[in-house]
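Consider the record:
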Amino acid sequence: MRSPRRCSRNGCPRQAVATLTYVYNESTAVVGPLAAFAEPHTYDLCEQHARSLTAPRGWDVVRHEGEFEPPPPTTDDLVALAEAVREAARPVAPRPPQDDHTPHPQNQNPPTGRRGHLRVIPPNH
């Protein structure tokens, strides 16, 4: 699932609600509603940074006057969320019982415990 876009300002963890674009040939910074897609040479801003942005001396700032609202979830987001929930709800197939007295084949390692990306290595290795 796609994660929500975050503010481009360093260290800001808030969700982006506005897009900043510079129009260099007109010396203008434009702060408007969040663009549908992240584009190169634009910056996503949270509401606080969108409202407090200042431009260099000699530049103008054109700012959206309405409310900045987070974008609604797209169909892709909802489908991805539904698939993630389905995947998490799938039952894990039980392992067949193993007899501790059965010797392991020479070319295989003995079974190890595994959870997520970690695994338990037996102490004799």
In short: The first helix runs from residue 47 to 52. The chain has a mean pLDDT of 77. Residues 1-70 form one domain.
